[in-house]
Task: inverse folding
């Protein structure tokens, strides 16, 4: 560092003078390639546990040649997560920072893990202590397998009913509830000495566009943005959140140039750094999303986001191009070396605060520390307390006599969640028929379904309607819509269960006996069965 240069260490990572001096020495001893590499976080799926796999060879090259500072891991098995984090950590002197999307627990990325309900279920309960316990479990389990940073909590408000990417990932449409849940999540992560990441700044809720597919525009006034969308982020910053993820969102009220927030100095530096006084890690959303790559080259986007003030460039689309672009921009003077060092100091501060220099690898023996009984108990409590019912018209206790059937509705080809519920129905009730009308059924098959409805006394309709990246807006097929409307108007005793989106079905005219779960997790489905068996009382809402 130059003499008289003011060095700013992030307050969210409190370190003693010895650690700070070590960081300064590290930064001074790093060459430009190493400095630039610390700001890159490529991604991969942990679908391997051997060094001959092509993905491992690619990732190893990114560590050894391009000095990547960390990785985000997508889908994989528990064993593979452990293996690859340990193996890669052994290849570098500066510890790697590993991150993952564990919004609703490790099961979001790792098969066989405890499947917590979605955020909206937790928001429906609105219990800060419960949210904090959930966060601590997820943080602890992540650390056990070598993952230090969770790209959660989601602090977007669910403001638009047909938002195709937020929906039940949001805690609520109410800023106060999202703020309370976000603060509890931050508290839980801090207690476990792990990194939570508030996303997607400055708020992805007020749009009907998925940023995986195109660039959303948040058409709200500055006053509305600060009093609504930004409120959960402001409270998370006050609570000491360590990291914020910036979304690919055009927000004209904050930047009239219509640059997406990820590339906007006015939003990243002007609002987040200067106005809100956040001095922790700023990470981009994945830079290979179409909201960015439809309009900017990898080179252009990488340089622009660093100029805007972000610290970590996430999944650029081509990590070597991203590295070379940033490296050459510094060499040419387009980006100053001091700007790069600012980010590297934050990144190394995070790694020191995490204790990665002392214990940086996943534990070999994690028996009893993941998928614990505590995790199951918390999942059960969230799921049971989240259930709500709307527009009750009849007794919801299932009769012991008369023909009863279960007609599932799914917005995709039948998956594991649908199979699980129909197995529950078969195991707990004397169902005369049990099938799923998925999105490949044709309208011509309505007659078959109508006959089953006409010959039944009681009908259960589980509806699996869920948001997914790149899918677009939620919708039912013409056949599925016809089936639901026919049941509503049939005069039969029926119960409709919304396993996922709570808004779409609420808008169907004349609907009664609508059970809202806010999640399709296994625990949410078990809670519904307990309700149908009369073992669980749930709240009725307007």
Result:
């Amino acid at each position: 560092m130059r003499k008289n240069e003011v060095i700013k260490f992030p307050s969210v990572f409190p370190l003693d003078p010895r650690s700070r001096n070590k960081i300064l020495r590290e930064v001074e001893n790093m060459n430009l390639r190493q400095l630039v590499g610390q700001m890159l976080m490529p991604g991969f799926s942990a679908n391997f546990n051997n060094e001959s796999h092509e993905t491992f060879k690619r990732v190893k090259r990114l560590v050894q040649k391009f000095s990547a500072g960390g990785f985000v891991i997508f889908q994989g098995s528990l064993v593979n997560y452990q293996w690859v984090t340990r193996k890669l950590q052994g290849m570098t002197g500066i510890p790697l920072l590993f991150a993952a999307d564990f919004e609703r627990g490790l099961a979001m990325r790792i098969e066989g893990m405890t499947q917590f309900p979605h955020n909206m279920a937790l928001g429906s309960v609105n219990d800060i202590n419960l949210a904090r316990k959930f966060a601590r479990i997820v943080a602890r389990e992540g650390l056990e397998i070598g993952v230090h940073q969770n790209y959660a909590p989601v602090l977007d408000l669910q403001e638009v009913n047909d938002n195709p990417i937020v929906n039940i990932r949001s805690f609520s449409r109410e800023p106060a509830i999202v703020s309370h849940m976000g603060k509890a999540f931050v508290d839980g992560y801090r207690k476990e000495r792990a990194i939570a990441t508030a996303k997607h700044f400055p708020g992805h809720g007020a749009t009907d566009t998925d940023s995986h597919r195109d660039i959303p525009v948040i058409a709200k006034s500055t006053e509305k943005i600060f009093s609504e969308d930004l409120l959960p982020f402001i409270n998370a910053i006050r609570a000491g959140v360590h990291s914020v993820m910036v979304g690919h969102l055009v927000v004209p009220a904050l930047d009239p140039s219509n640059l997406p927030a990820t590339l906007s100095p006015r939003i990243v530096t002007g609002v987040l750094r200067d106005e809100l006084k956040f001095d922790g890690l700023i990470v981009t959303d994945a830079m290979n999303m179409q909201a960015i790559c439809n309009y900017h080259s990898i080179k252009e986007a990488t340089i622009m986001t660093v100029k805007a003030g972000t610290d970590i460039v996430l999944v650029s689309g081509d990590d070597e191009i991203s590295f070379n672009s940033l490296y050459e921009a510094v060499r040419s003077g387009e980006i100053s070396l001091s700007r790069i060092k600012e980010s590297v100091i934050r990144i190394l501060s995070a790694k020191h605060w995490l204790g990665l220099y002392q214990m940086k690898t996943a534990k070999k023996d994690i028996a009893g520390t993941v998928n614990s009984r505590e995790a199951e108990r918390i999942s059960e409590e969230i799921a049971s307390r989240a259930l709500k019912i709307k527009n009750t018209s009849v007794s919801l206790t299932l009769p012991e006599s008369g023909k009863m059937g279960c007609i599932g509705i799914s917005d995709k080809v039948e998956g594991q969640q649908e199979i699980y519920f129909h197995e529950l129905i078969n195991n707990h009730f004397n169902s005369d028929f049990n099938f799923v009308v998925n999105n490949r059924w044709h309208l011509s098959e309505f007659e078959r379904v109508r006959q089953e409805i006409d010959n039944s006394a009681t009908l259960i309709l589980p509806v699996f309607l869920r948001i997914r990246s790149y899918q677009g807006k939620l919708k039912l097929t013409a056949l599925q819509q016809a089936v639901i409307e026919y049941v509503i108007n049939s005069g039969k005793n029926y119960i409709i269960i919304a396993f996922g989106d709570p808004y779409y079905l609420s808008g169907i005219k004349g609907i009664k006996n609508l059970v809202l779960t806010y999640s399709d997790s296994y625990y949410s489905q078990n809670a519904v069965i307990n309700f149908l068996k009369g073992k669980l009382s749930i709240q009725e809402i307007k």
User: Anything to note?
Assistant: The CA atoms of residues 240 and 505 lie 38 Å apart. The chain has a mean pLDDT of 92.
